Amino acid sequence: MQPLFRTPAAVPDGHPGDAILLVDNSRSFAAMLSASIGERLGLPVTVVASLAEARQALAGSDRHFLVFTGLVLADADADAILGFFVSTGLPLVVVSGAYDDAIRQKLQAQPIVDCVLKDTPGSIDYLVWLAQRLERNRRIGALVVDDSPAARALASSRLRLYGFQVAEAANGADALLAIAADPGIRLVITDYEMPGMHGIELIRHLRRTHARDRLAIIGVSGSGTAPLVAQFLKHGANDFLHKPWSGEEFFCRVSQNVDNLDLIGTLQDLATRDFLTGLPNRRHFFDLGAKMFEGARARGLSVAMIDIDHFKHINDSHGHDAGDLAIKAVANAVAQHARGQDLPARFGGEEFVLLAPGLRGDAAAAYFESLRAGIEAMSVPLGDGRSVRLTVSIGVCPDVGGGLSAMLAEADRQLYVAKASGRNRVKQAAETSAREPSMA
Ligand SMILES: Nc1nc2c(ncn2[C@@H]2O[C@H](COP(=O)(O)OP(=O)(O)OP(=O)(O)O)[C@@H](O)[C@H]2O)c(=O)[nH]1
């Protein structure tokens, strides 16, 4: 099952801090940019106005994962500024007041992520986007597939500069092994001409297991004729880059493709997950549940409807926000109680469902009883020093020969019986006949 809550994974290595170092001699620009990053991304920004202060901010600390710097500082010229920040190994974005041919040439020779003209419309928005992209890249794996060590090293070093966790493969077979071993890889950059398996064949293999919305693939070739580009795209590449690519284009295409994956992930979350609790929603429960149901039948399974008791009273006496906290706490308890093979969901309001494959009879009764008891023992902090206690009623139905909907209908009937007989209890339908309650 997919993880229930999309908590950001830890950044495996490199620069683990989440702060940005902003080095600029314009107080107003630095204030505007750091406020925008703080408000929109929630990332801390250290603002300094000289190279000496920047050295001090970075000394002995790995708080920063990214540097934005101007090239005009009171205590250093452009070469000294670039030389120092490049030597730190941190991703570097130059934020310049001017961008002429001389600066462009100087920067092209340097391993920097990007150069942004600061006084243009939209520059703050672009820099905020850059900060977000580079921060997120740290949790994304990228694989470079190329039989040329030099081409591989060039693409890999660029991707590392953008913060990705980079793996390399010299041929298609090794690439397939690398992808199978690391589910964190979301971006593949593959050459065309390679011994054993060419790039398009590799993509055909990859697409059997990795859809376009989960893995972005960019084809690369020096012989990027129109038919070859079309073949790449038709066989599943998300994009194509002609060799030799410019650093600027490489960054734009890579970023656009991983942005698209993020966007699709967000839309999928909105469509399948309950906004308040992060649990699968009702529709997603039926999609996943229908797939699980047939496979689980041989070993038996049970489904439970779980409803918070007197929930209206919690809302009425503590307010709607407190009610939301109570719903989240119960959702969390249900998700924590669920085993890896279970499927929990929020069905709406204060009602939850838990589908438990492999459980029936007394084992199912004990399993849901321990969930009920765990929730009864909880104290939900309301964030203002107060806390609230709550209970749930649970209706359980085993597989009695109908479909999943029939099980849910019977679990709902058992829930009604649990409510009617005093709440804070589990009622379970009999195995033989789903219409006779068997557990008091
Ligand atoms: N805070 C909050 N309240 C919600 C949400 N969804 C539904 N509710 C409220 O939940 C309450 C549900 O109340 P009922 O279904 O009547 O439950 P009850 O009568 O209090 O309790 P039982 O009879 O024990 O089920 C209503 O007042 C809804 O407005 C939500 O997302 N957040």
Automatic annotation (TrEMBL):
<dbReference type="GO" id="GO:0052621">
    <property type="term" value="F:diguanylate cyclase activity"/>
</dbReference>
<dbReference type="InterPro" id="IPR043128">
    <property type="entry name" value="Rev_trsase/Diguanyl_cyclase"/>
</dbReference>
<feature type="domain" description="Response regulatory">
    <location>
        <begin position="141"/>
        <end position="258"/>
    </location>
</feature>
<keyword id="KW-0808">Transferase</keyword>
<dbReference type="InterPro" id="IPR000160">
    <property type="entry name" value="GGDEF_dom"/>
</dbReference>
<keyword id="KW-0548">Nucleotidyltransferase</keyword>
<dbReference type="InterPro" id="IPR029787">
    <property type="entry name" value="Nucleotide_cyclase"/>
</dbReference>
<feature type="domain" description="Response regulatory">
    <location>
        <begin position="19"/>
        <end position="133"/>
    </location>
</feature>
<dbReference type="InterPro" id="IPR011006">
    <property type="entry name" value="CheY-like_superfamily"/>
</dbReference>
<feature type="domain" description="GGDEF">
    <location>
        <begin position="299"/>
        <end position="431"/>
    </location>
</feature>
<dbReference type="Pfam" id="PF00072">
    <property type="entry name" value="Response_reg"/>
</dbReference>
<feature type="modified residue" description="4-aspartylphosphate">
    <location>
        <position position="191"/>
    </location>
</feature>
<keyword id="KW-0597">Phosphoprotein</keyword>
<protein>
    <recommendedName>
        <fullName>diguanylate cyclase</fullName>
        <ecNumber>2.7.7.65</ecNumber>
    </recommendedName>
</protein>
<dbReference type="InterPro" id="IPR050469">
    <property type="entry name" value="Diguanylate_Cyclase"/>
</dbReference>
<dbReference type="InterPro" id="IPR001789">
    <property type="entry name" value="Sig_transdc_resp-reg_receiver"/>
</dbReference>
<dbReference type="Pfam" id="PF00990">
    <property type="entry name" value="GGDEF"/>
</dbReference>
